[in-house]
Amino acid sequence: MSGWYLRVLETGDVGAGDTVARLADSAGPTLREASVVVQGLTDDADLIRRVLAFEGLPTRWRPRIERRLAGGRVDESARERGPAADR
User: Fold this and answer.
1) SS3 5
2) Residue 34 neighbours by CB distance under 10 Å
3) What is the pLDDT of residues 52-76, one digit of tens each?
4) How far is residue 65's CA from residue 25's CA, in Å, rounded to a whole number?
5) Which of 7, 29, 62, 81 could form a cystine bridge with 85, CB 3.0-4.6 A?
């Protein structure tokens, strides 16, 4: 995905002079394209497949996107309510 998308792989301290490494060059979908797919705002099967093919896709997004591609219904109620609704 392209754009300023950062992910913390390991917690810790970062200080002045520390090296920050780019882990991958992105030829995959943009963050906007991935968001559109995850939110179910497109029926473009080619775009959905391209997002699924991206190895940097967060694992928790994959099942939802696969269900959409298969034409299945995706229950969005938990995502819409947010984590506080489970308490």
Assistant:
1) coil
2) 24
3) 998 888 888 899 899 888 886 666 6
4) 23
5) 81
User: How confident is the model over 17-42, as pLDDT tens digits?
Assistant: 998 777 666 677 888 898 899 888 99
Token pair of 8 as six digits? 């913390």
**3-class SS at 33?**
helix
Between the alpha carbon of residue 17 and those of residues 10, 11, 21, 47, 55, the distances in Å are 18, 17, 12, 39, 30
Rounded to two decimals, what is the model's pTM? 0.59
Contact criterion met (CB below 8 Å) for 3 and 31: yes
CB-based contacts of 20, cutoff 8 Å, min separation 6: 14
